[in-house]
Amino acid sequence: MAKVTVDGIEIEVPNGATVLQACEAAGKEIPRFCYHERLSVAGNCRMCLVEVEKAPKPVASCAYPVADGMKVFTDSAMVRNARRNVMEFLLINHPLDCPICDQGGECDLQDQATAYGGQGGRYREQKRAVKDKYMGPLVKTIMTRCIQCTRCIRFATEVAGVPELGATGRGEDMQIGTYVEKALSTELSGNLIDICPVGALTSRPYAFVSRPWELRKTDSIDVLDAVGANIRIDTRGPEVLRILPRTNEDVNEEWMADRGRFSFDGLKRKRLDRPWIRVEGKLRPASWEEAFAAIADRFQGLKPERVGAVAGDLVDAESAFALRELMAGLGSSNLDCRQDGAALDTSRRDFYLFNSGIAGIDEADALLIIGSNPRQEAPVLNARIRKRWASGALKVGYVGPKGLNLTYKAQHLGEGPAALAALQAGEGFAEVLKGASKPMIILGRAAIARADGAAVLAAAWALADAVGALTPDWHGFNLLHLFGGQVGALDAGFLPGPGGKDLSAMLSGGMDALWLLGADGFDPALIPAETFVVYQGHHGDRAASRADVILPGAAYPEKEGTYVNTEGRAQRGRLALHPPGEAREDWRIIRAAGAALGVPLAFDTLDALRARLVAANPVFGMVDGRVAGGCLDTTGPVAGPTPLSHTDFTLPVTDYWQADAISRASETMAECSRIYNDATPKLAAE
């Protein structure tokens, strides 16, 4: 530790720390533009200049290491004069765009010009102008505003793993762009907007929409993938205008995936805002009373074993539990939340969780990925893997389709279960795993959503045990889910009870009525024609077209809900705006339906429902926490009757941009799908 004095305050900081970090440890604010805590040091904006005793000139604190006994001054006459001069240089070519700039009110340059700038500039020559660059349908560029801090270049290269941004030219002719102008090929491009300290990179869908002080800000959780990124939903009136990430070091750090960030326009398209009932083969609008009456009429006299329910991938835990209680009141145990048919063993929770934890990636030193593409299934989690790999402490191998671009170097070990058998025998990459102190295995959900899924799950667990990934201090077996509602439904027990049928059995026939709670993840054409279908959801997506009664529910920003991410962390989403029209929160609909069906449910309020949920499974009471630890019982899941096949693994996400009901309704995501899924790369001229 080095002892450093900052403005008369003596502190101790680790050897190798920078002067800027020492100043912040002493509680001193240091202005900066190029420096970012999660990026490499560039030292090119010079705004962070401070005075160091005996130094001949001000030093850039972000790039200057501390030394024992150093004395630093952050507010001397030399420092104030240096910062004023730096700000004057930065503003020489910066346009007076503040009244029309989307960054206005949230701009670092505005704030620091006010706090550290002088009274005016002495530069009278003509300002330079720079041609705007094309970076795709999500990021809007106004490059004349660029102050060349290079944050965007470093983020694209170091965090996103797509070195497509760079600088051309020198001095005043220097410009930042994609060399050949094309859409940025990353699922994390929206984070460029957050880290840009000026208005050079802004949100294209949000352009000229509102000012930040007009917005109502609500903390919530992103459920469009299973990471459970902490987000802030900004609304004005009845509309979501933008979604931004919040910092949570254990989950998403401060990043967010593009689908969760930009698909919010899908919340106002293809919405179900009133009940519908099918009369003589055609759907017509109805009142809530008519819809419940139609359901009660068709459910009357039905045998419990001929009634079933399916929960979707974006459903909050409260709604899944409420529907489970309703089905129990009807006497039915035909429940399933695994629309993809994943062979999950739910006898133990660690059989279906990301047990190492997302933050545990920072400790792993060897990683095997089986049947998964984390880049598209969980982009923020993939960025964390890349960060660990870039540090030189992680070796990665994967089993799955050839040619995956994971943004980091990974050894391809095979395309199917045969590779697992070879690894089990101790061949090849198995030696790397055995030699690691904390090996990690990530099993994709698609790898167990097949006929031999149970055998794949058992083989992956056995491999984790064989390579030393299951110890009392480390749990290296991880299952990566796809959406934010999948683990919560499993924890809520939305699974077949004794003698109950799973989804495949329900679709095979013998069901008189089927209740679909936001279940759009399977082909509704598989439902037998004679089955009465109740669809409860927020979008007129796949399953709504097959419904006999439609009950309009609320999307995730429109209700209070608990969601459990892939590592088993329960988090709360908050109500940011009310659902449209006559739509209601899902648990309220289920409670009202229970009254109509003569099955009164034992809760009248959300608090009462949550109390029953916590009583059923205490993990829901650990909000913002998770059960962590090693593996004390290495007994594996049951392999099932179907042995491992020779069929290659396939990936579950065929179109990242339209993987759920909300993004399928989004025009922004449709444009992204058109651009990124076309085999021909889209250039600016197109």
TrEMBL record:
It comes from the Bacteria. GO terms for molecular function: 2 iron, 2 sulfur cluster binding; 4 iron, 4 sulfur cluster binding; metal ion binding; NADH dehydrogenase (ubiquinone) activity; oxidoreductase activity, acting on NAD(P)H; quinone binding. Residues 78-117 form the 4Fe-4S His(Cys)3-ligated-type domain. GO terms for cellular component: membrane. Gene3D superfamilies: 3.10.20.740, 3.30.200.210, 3.30.70.20, 3.40.50.740. Its EC number is 7.1.1.-. Its cofactor is [4Fe-4S] cluster; [2Fe-2S] cluster. Keywords: 2Fe-2S, 4Fe-4S, Iron, Iron-sulfur, Metal-binding, NAD, Quinone, Translocase. Pfam families: Fer2_4, Fer4_NDSU1, Fer4_Nqo3, Molybdopterin, NADH-G_4Fe-4S_3, NADH_dhqG_C. One of its GO terms (biological process) is ATP synthesis coupled electron transport. Coiled coil: none annotated. Residues 2-78 form the 2Fe-2S ferredoxin-type domain. Binds 1 [2Fe-2S] cluster per subunit. Residues 215-271 form the 4Fe-4S Mo/W bis-MGD-type domain. It catalyses: a quinone + NADH + 5 H(+)(in) = a quinol + NAD(+) + 4 H(+)(out). InterPro entries: 2Fe-2S_ferredoxin-like_sf, 2Fe-2S_ferredoxin-type, Mopterin_OxRdtase, Mopterin_OxRdtase_4Fe-4S_dom, NADH_UbQ_OxRdtase_75kDa_su_CS, NADH_UbQ_OxRdtase_ferredoxin, NADH_UbQ_OxRdtase_Gsu, NADH_UbQ_OxRdtase_Gsu_4Fe4S-bd. NDH-1 shuttles electrons from NADH, via FMN and iron-sulfur (Fe-S) centers, to quinones in the respiratory chain. Couples the redox reaction to proton translocation (for every two electrons transferred, four hydrogen ions are translocated across the cytoplasmic membrane), and thus conserves the redox energy in a proton gradient. Belongs to the complex I 75 kDa subunit family. This is NADH-quinone oxidoreductase. It comes from Teichococcus deserti.
